TrEMBL record:
Keywords: Membrane, Transmembrane, Transmembrane helix. It comes from the Bacteria. This is DUF2970 domain-containing protein. The keyword Transmembrane helix applies.
């Protein structure tokens, strides 16, 4: 890259995996900031949010299932 070429702007970069994970987690709890929501809509890809959301939902359901199994086992059922 020559000095006359503009450097790539970091603002135009797509969301990282960590940013996508934290955005989906914040959406799960309903505490997403307006600034992050705007960033997600302008730079995020819907498929990434769908995949991460499905994975987190599956993890939550499995965690509840395991907790119920452990509670029933400790109750002697």
């Amino acid at each position: 890259m020559s000095p006359s070429e503009p450097s790539p702007r970091r603002d135009d970069a797509p969301l990282t995996l960590w940013q996508t994970l934290t955005s989906v987690a914040a959406a799960f709890f309903g505490v997403q900031s307006a600034r992050n929501r705007e960033r997600d809509f302008s730079k995020g890809r819907p498929l990434h949010f769908i995949v991460v959301g499905l994975a987190m939902t599956l993890a939550f359901v499995l965690a509840v299932w395991v907790a119920v199994k452990l509670a029933l086992r400790s109750a002697g059922m």
